[in-house]
Amino acid sequence: MKRLFDLLPSLRAIRRITDHFILEDGTMIGGGYFSHMFFFIPWVKKFQIIQKDYSTVVCRIVPIGNASTSDTQDIEKKIRFLMGDSCNVIFDFVDEIEPSMSGKHRYVICEVSAEQLLQ
Q1: Taking the CB of the first residue and of the last residue of the chain, which one, N or C, has fewer CB atoms within 10 A?
Q2: Own/partner pairs for 91-97, CB < 8 Å, 24+ apart?
Q3: Which residue from 50, 44, 45 is spatially nearest to 31, judged by alpha carbons?
Q4: What is the C-alpha separation between 25 and 22, in angstroms, rounded?
Q5: How far apart, in whole angstroms, are the C-alpha atoms of residue 89 and residue 66?
Q6: Can you give the CATH number for the domain in which 100 is found?
Q7: pLDDT (tens digit per residue) in 77-118
Q8: pLDDT band for position 75 (50/70/90)?
Q9: In terms of residue numbers, what domain contains 38?
Q10: Are 119 and 86 in contact (CB under 8 A)?
Q11: How many other C-beta atoms lie within 10 A of the C-beta of residue 31?
Q12: How many domains is the chain partitioned into structurally?
């Protein structure tokens, strides 16, 4: 009989992994909250949300046509609601978003390092 530990590599292959964003106090916010903001916006072809540090979030977007100012303001407001009013939300409109090393698209990426968490 196989132990659960022996099955982990095969489970990882079929499971979608989403990063969590981390607040300075250690609170973790599920990445799904951020990705769902973009799913039904008609001018967004592809997106990726990156937490650079505790106070900076970059929204990389491959647009279809022109971006809606009201949509970007609404997204910024929702991000700041959870990340804090001083959070710097940057919109980066790009032609393409490269897949990760595994070939999959990562919707949410947290770049807060382990060192930052321990401080």
Answers
A1: N
A2: 91/58, 91/59, 91/61, 91/67, 92/58, 92/59, 92/60, 92/61, 93/61, 93/62, 93/63, 93/67, 94/60, 94/61, 94/62, 95/62, 96/46, 96/62, 97/46, 97/47, 97/48, 97/60, 97/62
A3: 50
A4: 8
A5: 19
A6: 3.30.300.30
A7: 999 999 999 999 999 999 999 998 888 899 999 998 755 555
A8: very high
A9: 19-118
A10: no
A11: 20
A12: 1
Q: In this structure, is residue 11 part of a structural domain?
A: no
Both tokens of 31, joined, read 């990445």
Within-domain flag for 38: yes
* Token duo for residue 100: 């990760």
Rounded to 5°, the CA angle 21-97-41 comes to 70
